[in-house]
Amino acid sequence: MLIRRVVIVKTTDDMWQAAVSGVGNVADIGIIDVSLYSSSIEWELRFLRQSKPTSSLVISSQDAPRQVEVWQSAEPIEFYATSASADKDFERRLRERLTRML
Prior knowledge:
Strand order of the largest sheet: 1-2-3
Radius of gyration: 14 Å
Structural class: alpha/beta
Oligomer: single chain
Helix content: 40-55%
C-alpha cells in the first residue's frame, strides 16, 4: 500500500530549480504558494504546467498583492487568511480539494 505524504524541500538558492524539478517530476500534485510573487514563482508555475504532476494546486494569502501574471497562468487559486477561524476553514477546503484531486 502506498502512503501519500507531503514533502517540503529546503534548498540553497543555487539548487532550487534542480530541487523543484526533481521532486516535481515524481509528485502526484504540485502545490505552490504565490503570495510572494516573483520571477522564481513564475518559473515554478511554468514548470508545474509542463511537468509530470497531472494536477496542481495554487494557494495565496488573501492579503497578498494581486499579480496579473499569476491570474493568467495559474489554476484556480485557493485563498487563505491569517486568523484562527479562517485557518480551520482553509484547512477544510484544502483537504476537500486535495481529496478530489487524488
